[in-house]
Every structure is written in structure tokens, then in C-alpha cells.
Amino acid sequence: MSHLGNWEVAAHLLKKKSPEMNLLLYMGVKQKEEIEHVQKQSLSQGGIRVVGIDRDGGSPFAIIEGLKMLKEGGFVSMTGDLLWNREQRAVPVRFLRQEVKLPEAPHILALLSGAPLFIFFAFRAGRRHYRFKIIGPNYVRASSRSQRAAAIQGSAQEYARLLEEALYQSPMEWYHFEPFLGPQTAGQLS
Questions:
Q1: Would you call 171 helix, strand, or coil by DSSP?
Q2: In what order do the strands lie in the sheet with 49-54?
Q3: Digit-coded pLDDT (tens) for 23-79
Q4: Amino acid 18: pLDDT
Q5: Phi/psi of residue 122, each to 5°?
Q6: Considering only CA atoms, which of 1, 50, 42 is closest in space to residue 25?
Q7: d(Cα 53, Cα 47) in Å, to the nearest integer?
Q8: Taking the model in full, what pTM does it have?
């Protein structure tokens, strides 16, 4: 998922349309945020499992929950466009002619589980109307351990390209309030 459009509405509608679907959502935890607490409670009551990750990092077992969910045929949703904590592993990509760092976790999870990666955007199309765009399946594969970094880099760069494309279509729906853009890039990142 991305901070482009309304992911919370999308999660509720997806679960309503497919109640049998097992959905695990990783969310950042902000201290003393009552609105966030209400969001998480609403998602949980809707049958969506929520794993909260705080700014200091989450439990190493949190990723195991995601792997288990994928192995059981469920879906895992995590942010692709925001580094949440200081210890989070990142991959540099080119985005809007700038270098940015994106979370490695979605791409590593897809690589390790063998599950496909779907890129999901939820755009507001009017009052109480939304338009959803799902791109994929994309597989993150490496034939050897030495090729994992390149596979993750390629997957993250493709996500950045798709996010950029979606952002051009709906620039007023990107809710990303953290410093994001790095130095300008002349060409490809390695």
C-alpha cells in the first residue's frame, strides 16, 4: 500500500466484499494519537488483523507473522513509500528525478515467501466513491543468494515507477508528510 489515496477505506471495502479473506495490515504506531487508535480498532473489528510497529522498531517476530499469513494463503499489506523507524532497512530508488529510500520489507517478504507482490492504490472519485487500482502479480525472484539485492532493487524501482505514475494522475491524494526526496539523480541508481 501507499500513502496515496485512502487505504483505510480500501481495507474495509475489501474485507466487506470478501469476508473470508485473511488480511494482515502492518501500521505505524504514533504515541498519543487517538484518531490512529480509533482507526486500528475499527480495522480489527472489521476482521482485519493489525500489527503495530512503533518508531523504535518492531519485534523481529512481526515479520514472521506476515510470512505465516502469506504461507496460509492470506494477504499482507504494508507501506511501500514510508520508512517508519530508524532501524528499518531501505533500498535507494529513483523517484521524481530524485533519490529516495523505500522500505525493503515488502520486497523481502515477497522474495522469501514466494508470494506475489501487488501494488494497490485507492483514489477518491467523488463523494463516497472510490476507484481502486491493483497492479500485479509481480514476483520478486532471485536464482541465488547473491542475486537477492538486485531482485529487491528491481522490485522497489518498479514500485517507485508505478507510484510516480499514480501520483501524476492524482497529485492531491498523496498523504506523505515526512521528508522524502533526496538529491537529484542524473541516471539509474545501482
A1: helix
A2: 49-54, 23-29, 75-77
A3: 888 876 665 555 555 566 666 666 677 776 766 666 667 788 889 889 999 888 888
A4: 78
A5: -125, 110
A6: 50
A7: 19
A8: 0.80
* Residue 181: all three cell numbers together: 526526496
Strands 23-29 and 75-77: parallel
Cα(151)–Cα(153) distance, rounded to whole angstroms? Answer: 5
Separation of alpha carbons 190 and 185, rounded Å: 11
Length reported for the chain:
190
Helix (H, G, I), strand (E, B) or coil at 99: strand
3-state secondary structure string, the chain? CCCEECHHHHHHHHHHHCCCCCEEEEEEECCCCHHHHHHHHHHHHCCCEEEEEECCCCCCHHHHHHHHHHHCCCEEECCCCCCCCCCCCEEEEEECCEEEEEECHHHHHHHHHCCCEEEEEEEEEECCEEEEEEEEEECCCCCCHHHHHHHHHHHHHHHHHHHHHHHHHCHHHECCCCCCCCCECCCCCC
Whether 17 has a pLDDT exceeding 60, the answer reads yes
In angstroms, the Cα distances linking 118 to 129, 182, 185 are 22, 26, 27
C-alpha cell at 144: 541465488
Q: Could you give the CA distance from residue 107 to residue 101 in angstroms, rounded to a whole number? A: 13
